[in-house]
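> example.struct
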């Protein structure tokens, strides 16, 4: 997430964007390897293959969306982002931590109801921040080009947060389907 922050706040975000592109490619390689391994598993695997496959694809969509955002930030060269954008980036970082904790708990067969609740709270917070950011942008921004670019950036940040929420929700669904005794 530091590279995304660098992309958002530096005068030359190209290096940070290249780092994010590299991370996204690494994520693609990990996903392909995991899916190949999943294909080799027999029917006794405790989690239905399609649920696991969907989780990998959802996480890949998160990485793709982050890469797209980083590309926009690098191309737009917005300089210092407004406080609402920085706050939304903070929510993205928090969402990454919550998803990581949920995946860890799921993999260990532990409950992760706290992560589900936290993710829901973060998504609600992001919705409020997004609305306030757009309102503030409409009230204060004088440059129409910058307004359009920031509107797109805000929308992309909100989409990334929604993708994190979808991924945690998918884990919750997998838990109910796989470990119905929980």
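> example.seq
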């Amino acid at each position: 997430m530091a590279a995304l922050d660098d992309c958002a706040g530096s005068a030359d975000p190209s290096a940070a964007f290249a780092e994010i592109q590299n991370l996204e490619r690494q994520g693609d390689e990990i996903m392909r390897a995991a899916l190949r391994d999943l294909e080799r598993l027999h029917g006794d695997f405790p989690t239905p293959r399609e649920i696991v496959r969907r989780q990998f694809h959802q996480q890949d969509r998160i990485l793709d969306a982050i890469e797209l955002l980083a590309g926009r930030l690098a191309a737009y060269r917005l300089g210092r982002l407004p406080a609402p954008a920085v706050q939304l980036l903070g929510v993205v970082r928090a969402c990454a931590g919550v998803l990581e904790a949920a995946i860890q708990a799921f993999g260990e067969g532990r409950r992760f109801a706290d992560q589900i609740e936290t993710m829901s709270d973060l998504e609600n917070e992001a919705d409020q921040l997004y609305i306030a950011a757009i309102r503030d942008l409409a009230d204060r921004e004088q440059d129409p080009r910058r307004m359009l670019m920031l509107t797109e950036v805000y929308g992309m940040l909100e989409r990334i947060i929604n993708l994190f929420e979808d991924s945690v929700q998918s884990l919750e669904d997998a838990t109910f389907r796989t470990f119905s005794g929980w």
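> remarks
The radius of gyration is 18 Å.
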